[in-house]
Design goal:
The chain is mainly α. It is built from one helix and no strands.
């Protein structure tokens, strides 16, 4: 019984570590997309100002 309980505990810890890794991966993706979005916004602002200048 003790060994079965231990294996189920390790299974739970494996799932939780997998979950945190997924969260970290998502957070990384979000940061990357936000950075790309910021760069795109800057590009649009630059082009818009160039258009108004011309």
């Amino acid at each position: 019984f003790v060994s079965a309980h231990g294996s189920s505990l390790s299974l739970v810890s494996t799932n939780s570590s997998l979950y945190s890794t997924t969260e970290e991966k998502q957070a990384h993706e979000i940061r990357k997309l936000r950075k790309e979005l910021d760069q795109a916004n800057e590009k649009v602002a630059t082009l818009t100002s160039q258009l108004t200048t011309n």
